[in-house]
Amino acid sequence: MTSPVVVTERPADGVGLIRINRPEARNALNLEVRRLLGQYLTEMAEDDNVRCIVLTGNDKAFAAGADIKEMAGAGSIDMLLRGTQNMWRKIYGCPKPVIAAVSGFALGGGCELAMTCDIIIAGESAKFGQPEVKIGIIPGGGGTQRLPRTVGKYKAMRYVLTGDLFSAKEAYDMNLVSEVVPDAEVEKRAVAMAQQIAELAPLAVQQTKESVVRGMDASLETGLTLETRTLQMLFASKDQKEGMAAFIEKRKPKFEGR
């Protein structure tokens, strides 16, 4: 039986690729998919050969939402015991950069999954949305929190209250998407960007991500302090010495993540 999540460890040097693989269900996020996503992201976070991760689906869907059939008959305690919030934490807690390569639908939990990533590359025909209100619930993977923090209250309200979908261009205009590319180039572009990041100093990349993520939830003064302390800490790394020496000597640096 084919796994609902497939790992390709080396589409390029330093790059890991995780593919949601439930085409028969438009890559709906059932409990097994969420569990495997958390597992593989954790494994890649601990793998020194992987420096940046691409998360994708297929040309029809990144992920078309949660698996409604799996949850339709559940009660409150059933939902509590599923511990889906812990699965989400494993996904968005990955210390290495994660790039979402979005083709087709990214709806509900799929849109929320993309928002847990650090960069979103979307195909021109991709569709985003939080349509949970249409089936009597609300977003449960960060849609009511991450979306307004990203696009602002009034744009977010317009979509979470109506359940309407929006295009890749609209997502880009709202600052939800990093880049829009032709549909056929989504995965290729995401892997190329991941390889570009993977060639940089791993400690600096990871600390940059952490500074941005932690700083966004803090006051400006606290965020600036975190940034300063992190910069100072990196001067203890071999990569800092190598990077600056290579710059002065006009050569390509060889970063080791130390």
Structure description:
The protein has 2 domains: 5-198, 2-enoyl-CoA Hydratase, Chain A, domain 1 (Alpha-Beta Complex); 202-249, Lyase 2-enoyl-coa Hydratase, Chain  A, domain 2, CATH 1.10.12. The protein has 12 helices and 10 strands. The protein has helices at residues 31-45, 68-71, 76-82, 84-92, 109-116, 143-151, 153-162, 168-173, 186-198, 202-216, 220-234, 238-249, and strands spanning 5-12, 15-20, 52-56, 61-63, 98-102, 105-107, 119-123, 127-129, 165-167, 179-181. A 6-stranded mixed sheet has the order 1-2-3-5-7-10, sandwiched between helices. The protein has a 4-stranded mixed sheet with strand order 4-6-8-9. A hairpin with a 2-residue loop joins strand 1 (5-12) and strand 2 (15-20). The longest helix is centred in the first third of the chain and has 15 residues, at 31-45. The chain starts with a strand and ends in a 9-residue tail after the last helix.
What are the defining features of this structure?
alpha/beta; 2-enoyl-CoA Hydratase, Chain A, domain 1; Lyase 2-enoyl-coa Hydratase, Chain  A, domain 2; four-stranded mixed β-sheet
